Structure formats: C-alpha cells, structure tokens
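Exam revision sheet. Question 4 asks you to relate a sequence to its structure. Input first:
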Amino acid sequence: MGRAGAFAAFLAVLGAAPGTARADAESILHALTESTDFRVRVNAALALGRSGSEAPDGTREALEQALGDAHPAVRVAAATALASLKDSAAIPALERRLAVESSASVAAQLRLSLTVLRRADDGDLEDPDTAPAPTQALTSDVHYVVTLGTMRNRTSVGGDEVRRVLSRASRLYAAALHGTVVVDHDGPLLRQAAARRIPVITLDGNVTRVTESRVAGGAQVQARVEFTVRRDQNLKGTLSGAATTFGPGAALTDESRRQLQDDAVSAAVQSALRGAEQGLLVAAR
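Answer key, structure tokens:
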C-alpha cells in the first residue's frame, strides 16, 4: 500500500458511497478523539473540515478539543478544519488556544483561521487557502523559515484542485516540522528572518503521478509528489513521497474519486516531509 499504508483502512471510508457518508463521518470523528496515531488524528481533523453538511453532531467541539492535542500537526489540522467549516462559534476556542500556544507554526495557523472566520462572520467568504496570514513575530524556537514556492500539478488528473491540495498539505506538514514557521505571503516575517540571520528555505512542489487502478473489492489511487529545496535560489536537494488510498465498491462516484485523489496527494506530501528536519537544517547551512 505504499509509504502511507498505515492510513489505507482509515482513508477508505472517505471514498464510501453517499448513503454511508454520515456513518463514515462519525467513524472519522471517533478516530480524531481516540486514535493513538497522530497521523490518523491529522487526517481525521482535515476530513472533518471537509465534511460540511455531513458533519456529525459534536464535530466543532471535537475539533476545538483537538486544538489542545499534544502533537503540533494535529493542532494545525484542527485549526485548519475549523476555518474550513466557517462556523464563527469556534472563534473563542481559537483565541483561547492562541493565548497559550508555544509553537510558532501552530500560532500562525490559529491566526489565519481566526482571520478567515472573522471575515466569514462579516460576510466576506474569502478562500482560506488564499487569505493572507496576519503579521506575527518570529519566536526564539524558529530555526529556519520555509516559504512555499511554485506548486504544480504535472499530471493530467484533477487539474487545479490537485494543485490546491498540494499547496494546502505542503503548508500543513511543513509547519509541523520542529523549529519551522511557514511563510508564503508575509513580507515582515521575511524581513525579521533576514535581520536575525534565520535561514529561509523555499520548497517548490510537484505532483508527478496520480493513477487509479482496480483492485479486489474496489479501486485504489496512487500519488507521488516531489519537492525541490532551495536557499537563495541555489538547489540544495530534493524530497519525494508516495501514497496509496483505497475506495471500496464496484464503482466510484466522481466525488469519491476526487476525494481519493485529494487524500492520496495529501498523504504523499506527508510521506515526503515526514522527518525532513535534518535535511532542511543541512540545506540551511
């Protein structure tokens, strides 16, 4: 099942038939609150953020509780999901977490989510993927700044939607790396980094493969992504990752197929960036 095989059973519910959507959403809610694997909790939070009208009762409350998760990647995912749901009732919980958050990368997402929800509450439904992050200060635990460069879908599958998934997942999983803050629009942060001589690393991402094939009991989607790592326009290295997701049933709906593609790309990004701290530190020298 590829490098993301640990997620296969969990991700399978995301490609289920529409008639089972609510039951599946409840299973994902259970995974967020009960799983001992932080990677499963991350994917559960993101899936709940996409659940919309199919979200089970208690979704917002569970995501708010996940803002206090021990792992920063889960906290980032929970804040991202709350912004995706566009429920302004989550604003107080985000504000409370921001007041005590020690991770710079998590704090950045908390601020972004608050910006998105406040704009939604005012009737401005700007896409959270393109909303600029508020200005913040670089804290002492930041060892290098990561900027997201060009994000491309080099396949013929999924078009701009796959590119957007690549961008979202790259921000999420890069932000979870120790000692990292991700910046893509915030000029003042880059100036702070320059003033403090904090290295700035640029990640350019490419989706190089998205394929679907039939397997016993359903269909599987395989995805591969590659990143080039640059500093000061100089190539420092590459990172790559692959993942496979599975959808049960004789045939996939268009929505189920899209979801499997999105989740395969997201998991491939996680595969590429998992444990990348040492490589980025070397690139920062």
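Marking note for examiners. The chain has one domain: 5-283.
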